[in-house]
Amino acid sequence: MSPVIPIQAESGCSDAPVLRERGQREVFCGLTGIIWLHRKMQDAFFLVVGSRTCAHLIQSAAGVMIFAEPRFATAILDERDLAGLADAQDELDRVVQRLLERRPDIRLLFLVGSCPSEVIKLDLSRAAGRLNQRFSPKVRVLNYSGSGIETTFTQGEDACLAALAPALPAAPTSGEPELMVVGALADVVEDQFRRLFTAMGLPRVSFFPSRSSTTLPAVGPRTQFLLAQPFLGDTARALESRGARRIAAPFPLGAEGSAAWFHAAGAALGVSRSGVDRALAPARQRAVQALSAHRQQLAGKRVFFFPDSQLEIPLARFLARELGMTLIEVGTPYLHRQHLAEELAWLPADTRLSEGQDVERQLDRCRAAQPDLVVCGLGLANPLEAEGMTTKWSIELVFTPIQGFDQAGDLAGLFTRPLHRRQLLAA
């Protein structure tokens, strides 16, 4: 088993210059986060107040079958709403009334803002407050914005959890510290993490968001939380305003990143390093073994990241340190230096970092570099493939369970498969 390399306080890209670009962007809007959030929160419903385009986007991303009954829908804003000829608040009340009559299983309803509702200045906060008074305690009604005007792809989850954080019950102010894992994880990953925390001697671990709105975790000064996703800046601030404290750690991607993430939790809650090592050893050994075959295919290959999900820096660290890839440029929509401090310290010192996007300029840099693999959004992938480049859809890295030891091999496979496909096409 390869040893955990300690993170140095002053190393890697901790103080590296960042190219900040504020031009045209190529990203999905925050509505996309509903696709994984509605699967996680099993008694919640997401009602998008938007256009038919919003509805088509979500249904296309979800791949919903015609006979399926998902936990999301769109309240369509038509011409009368947009022209101010109808009272949108009254219309919304009628839609919510019909929805809750049809779906009595709903316990938590999110009103999700979109570009159209933002443009006509529809006050969803006011609507949520009014509807919450009307339907509580059976149904709690909250709101957040998934508008592409305000958010990018993964920020929809951040906005959703930040809206839910004030509704978490208050934890007792005295007693032992408790651990909360923050960020939507696939159920299989959550179950794996819970088993490892129990093996470490930490059985009292909560996950936010929880699978049910009736079992929301408590938060207070005794709460210490680990971020499972790097794009939860607003959620972290909302939890800290409730007295919780963030545990600084890299993110649980790959064998090395997952081990450091669990070690950070153990150190914060008084578990010895040797105790954590013993609990993690079998899972970590499986991860290292799963990665070995992928390293043979990826070592020395050059990769270029376009900004899309805010996962780019942890993924770049994983590819460089555990799979031997060379980083040409790592672009991210927003670089949160505090939350990514441990990741930046692990990046090679000569890594080019960029924040934001000017897509034409970045395309020029990518074409000049001619990387072996480009990680980018769907809007750029097909044109770059037509130019002969090999691409990986960044959205797949969010929709696929990639966190933890048992998913390390699957994560690496997401990068080897495009290269293998290119070899087959060239043969």
Segments where pLDDT lies below 50 for 5+ residues?
Answer: 1-10
Strand content: 15-25%
Radius of gyration: 22 Å
Describe the strand arrangement of the main beta sheet, using strand numbers. 1-12-11-10-13-14
Question: What is the subunit organization of this protein?
Answer: single chain
Strand segment tally: 14
Rounded mean pLDDT score: 91
Relative helix content: 40-55%
- Quickly count the helices: 17
Q: Given the helix and strand composition, which structural class is it?
A: alpha/beta
- Shape by Cα distribution: globular
Distance between the termini: 36 Å
Largest β-sheet summary? 6 strands, parallel
Question: What labels would you give this structure?
Answer:
17 helices; six-stranded parallel beta sheet; four-stranded parallel beta sheet; 427 residues; alpha/beta; disordered N terminus; globular; 44% helix
Question: Outline of this structure?
Answer:
The chain has helices spanning 34-40, 52-62, 79-82, 88-102, 115-119, 124-135, 155-164, 187-200, 233-240, 254-268, 273-298, 312-323, 341-346, 359-369, 378-386, 396-399, 408-426, and strands at residues 18-22, 44-50, 72-76, 108-113, 140-145, 178-182, 205-208, 223-227, 245-246, 302-305, 326-332, 352-357, 373-376, 391-393. With 427 residues, the chain is an alpha/beta fold.
What is the topology?
Layout: E1 18-22, H1 34-40, E2 44-50, H2 52-62, E3 72-76, H3 79-82, H4 88-102, E4 108-113, H5 115-119, H6 124-135, E5 140-145, H7 155-164, E6 178-182, H8 187-200, E7 205-208, E8 223-227, H9 233-240, E9 245-246, H10 254-268, H11 273-298, E10 302-305, H12 312-323, E11 326-332, H13 341-346, E12 352-357, H14 359-369, E13 373-376, H15 378-386, E14 391-393, H16 396-399, H17 408-426
Parallel strand pairs: 1-12, 2-3, 2-4, 4-5, 6-7, 6-8, 8-9, 10-11, 10-13, 11-12, 13-14
Helix pairs in contact: 7-9, 8-11, 10-11, 11-17
